[in-house]
Specification:
This protein has about 350 residues and is mainly α. Helix content is about 65%, strand content about 5%. It folds into three domains: about 15-150, no CATH class; about 150-240; about 260-345, no CATH class. The chain has helices spanning about 15-20, 40-55, 60-75, 80-95, 95-110, 115-120, 130-150, 155-180, 185-215, 220-235, 240-255, 260-270, 305-310, 315-320, 330-345, and strands at about 5, 285, 290-295. Strand 2 (about 285) and strand 3 form a beta hairpin. It is globular, with a radius of gyration of 21 Å. The N and C termini lie close together (about 10 Å).
């Protein structure tokens, strides 16, 4: 059996590309609209957003921006906040500051966008930084952030923000270094070494926090802080994952963690134990051919039912991010082959 390499998903919320998804998140809040949304409108919106994402990935920013607008127009000019942010990225990269700021100000004023750390480091928005409107926008975002975090544990928020930045630092560089130097290069090996070292230090801080205070909710450490708890555990060894997974399950029941994040952890743990994953979140890549595929999955015919129960979208849309096509029959055949080869080992 050819050796398999777990596909590295690079970065999180550090550029437009990493913030966006190939499909709209159904759990995200839609802007209020007076227009009665019919099925055809929703479908046109979803299709347009997906096409806009593809065009963005192809670096066709002008047409990506236009396609986002087609989607917004289909539902009366409204949008999911994530999609509106991504539209502003495409407009910025296309050199259209007027439309980019239009969408960013709508986010800041109407949706109370508050992710200051992201918007001020997003390279897709570099074109806007010298515009006089930029400082006006950032002032609003800062105000939103202060209001949103006024009741949070500030020291913990700062600590977790620092850990998040360190967790993502080398992961964000991986794609560029890999493309430039190749997977067997000394540069990639050094980057992976640094990432492993950083993960170990982050884990010491997070496990200490979890042992002392439990799995804290967004009401105490904010959304980013809460996500950081999950990320560090997700990036840890399987023994650590097994130790803290019951705590995370309890946190989900209490509303202190997302069921969708727990699903990702459960999938990774299952595969780490030599079992099949449950929700199809883990993508594997053949180390020789680099062909990507959904790692072995239990009851693949009903995977979308399970995904819906934890707030995840359809698997076909999720794997479309890697230009994969969901084919149940082929997945069953591949899984049988993988497991047969594993038995021979």
């Amino acid at each position: 059996m050819k050796k398999l390499l777990l596909l590295v998903v690079i970065g999180l919320l550090t550029s437009c590309k990493m913030q966006k998804s190939s499909v709209t998140k159904t759990t995200e809040v839609m802007e209020v609209t007076g227009k009665q949304m019919i099925k055809e409108d929703k479908e046109k919106y979803a299709v347009s957003i997906k096409e806009a994402w593809k065009l963005y990935e192809q670096k066709d920013y002008v047409n990506s921006a236009k396609k986002y607008q087609v989607g917004f127009d289909a539902i009366g000019g409204k949008a999911f906040s994530n999609d509106r942010y991504n539209a502003s990225c495409s407009y910025s990269l296309a050199g259209n500051s007027e439309r980019a700021f239009y969408h960013l100000f709508r986010l800041a004023n109407d949706s109370k966008y508050s992710n200051l750390g992201h918007i001020t480091t997003d390279t897709d928005l570099n074109f806007l930084y010298k515009d006089k409107q930029w400082n006006q926008l950032i002032t609003i975002v800062k105000t939103n952030k202060i209001k949103k975090e006024k009741d949070l544990d500030k020291p913990l928020v700062i600590m977790l923000d620092s850990i998040f930045q360190k967790d993502q630092k080398y992961r964000n560089q991986y794609g560029t270094v890999l493309k430039k130097h190749g997977k067997d290069s000394k540069e990639v090996k050094e980057l992976l070494r640094l990432n492993k070292e950083s993960d170990s230090l982050n884990l010491l801080q997070i496990t200490k926090l979890l042992d002392e205070k439990g799995w804290l909710g967004k009401n105490i450490i904010g959304g980013m802080g809460n996500a950081t708890l999950f990320l560090v555990i997700q990036h840890s060894d399987i023994d650590t994952q097994l130790k803290y997974m019951p705590m995370m399950k309890d946190a989900v029941l209490k509303g202190n963690a997302n069921s969708s994040s727990l699903a990702l952890l459960q999938d990774r743990v299952a595969l780490g134990q030599g079992k099949r994953q449950i929700y199809g979140s883990q993508i594997h890549s053949d180390i020789e051919t680099q062909e990507k595929y959904v790692a072995p999955l239990i009851d693949p015919k009903n995977v979308d039912k399970r995904r819906a129960e934890v707030g995840l979208g359809k698997l076909k849309d999720y794997i479309g991010h890697w230009d994969l096509v969901w084919d149940v029959k082929k997945h069953i055949e591949r899984t049988a082959k993988i497991e047969a080869e594993n038995i021979k080992k």
